[in-house]
Structure formats: C-alpha cells, structure tokens
Amino acid sequence: MTAKTALVVVAHHRADSLTARIGDVVAARLKEAGYAIDLLNLQAEGFDPRMTVADQPDWDDRDKAYSPEVQSHMDRITAADLIVPVFPVYWNAPPALLKGWIDRVWNYGFSYGRSKPRLAGRRMLWIGTAGAAEGDEYWASLQNILDLTLRDGISYYNGIAEAAVEVLPDAEGEPQIVDGTGNFTKGEALTGEQRTAHYRALEQRAIERVEKFLA
Ligand SMILES: Cc1cc2nc3c(=O)[nH]c(=O)nc-3n(C[C@H](O)[C@H](O)[C@H](O)COP(=O)(O)O)c2cc1C
C-alpha cells in the first residue's frame, strides 16, 4: 500500500518563526502517523501571492491553462490526501502570503466550478497561531470568523467536506488586550524557563490537534 501524502503549507516570512516551528512539529507527527510529507514553505520557495492575469479565472473557460508555477502547486494539492496550512493570524485572517496562494492556486475549474469536485475526499486542517489570549472575549469570535472563512468559505467551497480550524493562542508569549474603547494594554512578557515551557506547550497542543483530527 502506498503511503498517504500530507501537504504541509507553511506561510511565514521568517524561517525562525513560531509558525515555521509548528509546521515542522506537525510534519514530524504526520510522518510518524505514516504520511509521506510534502513541506511547502511559501516564502522559501519564493511564492508570489499577488494575483496575475495568467492566473485569474476565465469564467468562460474552466479548463484554462494557468501559469506553470500555479500548475505545479495544483499538482501538489492533487497529490495530497491531507492539506495542512500553518500560518499566523493577521487581522482575523490568514496572512497575505497564504491568502494569495489560495487566490492564485485554488482556482476556477481546478478546485471549484466542476459538477464533481476534484478535491473531494481530501481532508484539510488549518492551524493558526494567534496573539490573542485564550478565553478572552475576542477568542470565541476569532474562532467563529476563521471557521466561517477557512472551513466553510474555502475548504467546503472547494469540495473538502472534512476540514477543521485550530488556533493556538498566546503566540507572542505576552498578553495583549484591547478593551471596548480601543485601549491597548500589554502584560509582562514571559522569559527564561517560563517562556520555553510556554512554547513547548504550544507545540504539544499542535500535536494534540493533529492527533484529534486524525482519530
Ligand atoms: C499584521 C499583524 C496582524 C495581527 N493580527 C492579529 C489578529 O487579528 N488576532 C490575533 O490574535 N493576533 C494577531 N496578530 C498576532 C500574530 O498572530 C502573532 O504575532 C503570531 O501568531 C506569532 O507567531 P509568529 O512568531 O510565527 O509570527 C497579528 C500580528 C501581525 C504582525
């Protein structure tokens, strides 16, 4: 039996980011679970998130030939059984790097716009890191927004019924709270062993989210 493939998509501009670290941890856990890993680091591979004329949909031609770059990304998605984007939450949304990958690659005639969705049967786990503190007022609405835009708006629209969004909170290791009148307060930043333990717990949490999704 051939191994299933997981496409882990890391969307961050820094190689030493928490996001990149979570991407590695998630890939390692999936490998342990028997998946062949295709690690797509959008920044390292030089992916340009800006839409181009070559890659914008032609609503009269769902068989349009998109650019070779986008076609190669489509091939990687097609080859995957499981797709796991890992990204920092920016303004209640994925960062431009990941958004542009969706805009350009998850295109008309490829992933949507067919009577039989080509990506049906695949699974998708979105893993975001967020500065928000778990349990504060904003936390529940952030989860709802991301569920709506990523799970329903993107995965489901592209024929992937089995999808989930997991958000890791407190990603900056220091509480940041904006109150109802827009006042911004910053708590004390974690340091030393406390900081190490905090980030180790986030990694552990990412692993648990993967295990929950695979179960
Ligand atoms: C432009 C920008 C927008 C952000 N917007 C949000 C936000 O809407 N909600 C939130 O909880 N955190 C937000 N953050 C905090 C990031 O999610 C956080 O810095 C990131 O997850 C940390 O992971 P990293 O070290 O991999 O970048 C934002 C950060 C930046 C730079």
UniProtKB/TrEMBL annotation:
Pfam families: Flavodoxin_2 (PF02525). SUPFAM superfamilies: Flavoproteins. Keywords: Oxidoreductase. GO terms for molecular function: NAD(P)H dehydrogenase (quinone) activity. Residues 5-136 form the Flavodoxin-like fold domain. The keyword Transmembrane helix does not apply. Gene3D superfamilies: 3.40.50.360. InterPro entries: Flavodoxin_fold, Flavoprotein-like_sf, NAD(P)H_dehydrogenase_qn. PANTHER family: NAD P H OXIDOREDUCTASE-RELATED (PTHR10204), NAD(P)H DEHYDROGENASE [QUINONE] 1 ISOFORM 1 (PTHR10204:SF34). This is NADPH oxidoreductase. It comes from Glycomyces algeriensis. The lineage of its organism: Bacteria, Bacillati, Actinomycetota, Actinomycetes, Glycomycetales.
